[in-house]
Specification:
By secondary structure, this protein is of the alpha/beta class. It contains 15 helices and 13 strands. The longest helix is centred in the C-terminal third of the chain and has 25 residues. It is globular, with a radius of gyration of 21 Å.
């Protein structure tokens, strides 16, 4: 059985999924797992296509000290115990810069070019690249494909793409990229089956999770996003502030004596819901808290989503539908209700019963703008891109290049 391995590596976890390649290029999820607690309490957990557990084991800290070691541990388990030998590996890579507007086969040159964007996505890019290097070193003939969170937004026009700075900086790559593109691409592909009447219309998609952003789509393409040059901009997130006056950064440097690296750590790790609430960066904990600052953080989150919805509706010159996705968007009926309340001026009305049931459509039948909840699947998007690129490249039979 031919399989595709999908890898999404973070700082303390490596998530992976295995898809079988079936007739006519169809994919079916076989395994979903992750190694978390890297460098502290490493643990491998995995389940089959139906969610039944097939592995749950702990490792000593020294056995899995970093992401490459975690990738090696997961790979050994897949090969030695499950006899899975993928024909290719697809990776989520957060930042593709101006150069990459679509998935690409990876070689050492591609890795070198992607390393230039580490400082633009320091929470993600180094860890996305670590398993790629590990596989290149251990299995150089195994095809790897990089799928970029920025690629979906490369359809932006110049007005959405530029900052009001000298053109030379834009030519060097200082521009508005947008992120969570794999999630938005999945939603764009899913909408024709879910809501064909609005799929090619003007849609705002809210990807609300620990990282959060919103995308304005017209005819299934991105025309504007709340995120820009880095994944710091736009909505408040778990530990990132979202929209911030650049003067705040200057103040931290000049008045607080913070170095550039200190400011980077502060903005990526100590702000957002965590900084505002002083309680947690986890929306579930904030919703359960009676602390007034936790309530402020939730109010702020919903308020900023409402403000950005107005901006995106203006970019679209109207609105035909609003879609919630990702962890908070898919699971928090409270946050969805708060956001819909912010959208009342657009003629959006919530059906509380459908919202409580986490239904596909949560707006009332007489709502001027329909509101949907669509679970995202970035990993399936990566698997599809990987298989497509593998099958169209002028190369040898992919079966000859599987891991052995």
């Amino acid at each position: 059985m031919d399989t595709i391995l999908v890898v999404n590596a973070g700082s303390s976890s490596v998530k992976f999924q295995v898809y079988s390649v079936e007739g006519e290029g169809k994919l079916r999820r076989q395994i979903k797992g992750q190694i978390d607690g890297i460098g502290s309490r490493p643990r491998l957990r995995a389940g089959d296509a139906n969610g039944n557990p097939i592995a749950d084991r702990a490792y000593p800290i020294e056995a899995v000290p970093d992401v490459p070691a975690a990738m090696g541990t997961a790979g050994e388990w897949l090969r030695d115990e499950l006899r899975i030998h993928p024909i290719a590996v697809g990776h989520r890579v957060v930042h593709g810069g101006p150069e990459y507007d679509r998935p690409v086969l990876i070689d050492h040159g591609v890795v070198a070019r992607l390393e230039r964007f580490v400082m633009l996505a320091p929470l993600h890019q180094p860890h996305n690249l670590a398993p790629i290097r590990s596989i290149l070193a251990g299995f150089p003939a195994l095809p790897q494909v990089a799928c970029f969170d920025t690629a979906f937004h490369r359809t932006h026009g110049p007005l959405a793409d530029h900052y009001a700075i000298p053109h030379q900086l834009h030519a060097e790559g200082v521009r508005r990229y947008g992120f969570h593109g794999l999630s938005y691409e999945y939603i764009a592909n899913a909408l024709p089956q879910i809501a064909p009447d609005i799929a090619k219309g003007r849609v705002i998609v809210a990807h609300l999770g620990s990282g959060a952003s919103m995308c304005a789509m017209s005819r299934g393409q991105s025309v504007e996003s709340t995120m820009g040059f880095t994944a710091l901009d736009g909505l408040p997130m778990g530990t990132r502030p979202g929209q911030l006056d650049p003067g705040v950064v200057l103040y931290l440097i000049s008045e607080k004596g913070m170095s550039a690296s200190n400011v980077q750590d502060f903005l990526y790790r100590d702000c957002g819901l965590k900084g505002l609430s002083g309680v947690s960066n986890d929306m579930r904990e904030l919703e359960a808290s009676s602390d007034a600052k936790a309530k402020l953080a939730i109010d702020y989150f919903a308020y900023r989503i409402g403000l950005n919805a107005g901006m995106l509706a203006a970019a679209l010159q109207g609105l035909d539908a609003f879609v919630f996705t990702a962890g908070i968007g898919e699971n928090s009926a409270t946050i969805r209700a708060r956001v819909v309340e912010q959208l009342g001026w657009l003629g959006v009305t919530l059906d509380p019963a459908e919202n409580a049931r986490h239904s596909k459509q949560i707006s009332r039948s007489d709502s001027r703008i329909p509101v949907y909840v669509v679970p995202t699947d970035e990993e399936l998007m990566i698997a599809k891109h990987t298989l497509s690129l593998l099958m169209t490249r002028p190369s040898t039979n992919p079966r000859q290049e599987r891991v052995s």
